[in-house]
UniProtKB/TrEMBL annotation:
Keywords: Cell cycle, Cell division. Pfam families: DivIC. It comes from the Bacteria. This is Cell division protein FtsB. One of its GO terms (biological process) is cell division.
């Protein structure tokens, strides 16, 4: 009977280790597998993000193409071209009323009937520049 007590006491003292060789081997294999798969998974996720970005750019380009087609159709319309010429370039047709403000004074007349601006057009550009500087200098002098 003594032997059975000792053998149970010896087994009780000799516990199983918390980490066995098999557990370490299994943990190492799992870690190796995770490290092996980390690169391809990261590349897959980066590829998916790039695909989403390219799809968004494609949608934007499609929308831009639609807008440009609409603009091309508008510009081929003669009524639109005439309206833009009137607004942007201040073109007028004969018979339209034209109001031009020159030096704070409104000058009215029919299109094509406005008198020329006067003798300033006959001067060379550099003389116009010098005259403009002289006029600005005269305005800048304080009157006492």
């Amino acid at each position: 009977m003594r032997r059975s007590v000792r053998s149970t006491a010896a087994t009780a003292v000799r516990r199983r280790p918390l980490v066995t060789g098999r557990a370490v081997l299994l943990g190492g294999l799992v870690l190796l597998l995770a490290l092996t798969l980390a690169g391809p998974i990261r590349q897959y996720l980066a590829g998916q993000a790039e695909l989403e970005q390219l799809a968004a750019e494609g949608r934007e380009l499609d929308q831009r193409a639609v807008e440009l087609r609409e603009q091309l159709e508008r510009q081929s319309d003669p009524v639109y071209a005439e309206r833009q010429a009137r607004e942007r370039l201040t073109y007028v047709l004969p018979g339209d009323r034209l109001v031009v403000v020159v030096d704070g004074e409104a000058v009215e007349g029919d299109a094509g009937t406005l008198a020329s601006a006067g003798p300033d057009e006959e001067l060379p550009w550099y003389e116009n520049l010098m005259q403009s500087l002289a006029d600005a200098d005269a305005d800048a002098e304080p009157s006492e």
